[in-house]
């Protein structure tokens, strides 16, 4: 790692520590946002270094993390809160959907 990467890593660690102390309840949201920001900053650094292809890929990934990250985190929390412990295999889609419907009906 060069000195710029060490400074960026140290600043990120300090910022994450502050977020853990201040925002106990919303740390997942903050972590997703922080990850997206780091990926976008990495994309900007790639653009500046002349690595356009890497910059484009990282910027798209950062935007996707920023936009869809909360959706996946919320979905994971809903699944954990629902207490779904059974795993469904998607060998045959119709059979899988029927198993899911039967499982949901049995839970009610």
- Give the DSSP E fraction (strand runs of 2 or more residues): under 5%
Proportion of residues in helical segments: over 70%
Written as H for each helix and E for each strand, in order along the chain, the element string is HHHH
Unreliable parts: none
Rg, rounded, reads: 20 Å
Q: Can you count the beta strands? A: 0
Question: Mind summarizing the main beta sheet?
Answer: none
**Shape, principal axes of CA atoms:** elongated
Structural class: mainly alpha
DSSP summary: helix tally: 4
Span between termini: 55 Å
Describe the structure.
Helix content is 82%, strand content 0%. With 108 residues, the protein is mostly helical. Helix 2 (27-49) runs antiparallel to helix 3. The chain is elongated.
């Amino acid at each position: 790692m060069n000195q710029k990467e060490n400074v960026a890593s140290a600043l990120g660690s300090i910022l994450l520590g502050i977020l853990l102390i201040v925002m106990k309840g919303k740390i997942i949201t903050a972590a997703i946002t922080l990850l997206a920001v780091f990926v976008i900053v990495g994309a900007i650094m790639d653009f500046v270094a002349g690595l356009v292809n890497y910059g484009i890929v990282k910027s798209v990934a950062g935007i996707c993390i920023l936009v869809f990250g909360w959706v996946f985190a919320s979905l994971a929390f809903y699944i954990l809160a629902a207490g779904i412990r059974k795993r469904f295999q998607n060998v045959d889609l119709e059979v899988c959907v029927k198993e899911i419907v039967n499982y949901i009906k049995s839970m009610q």
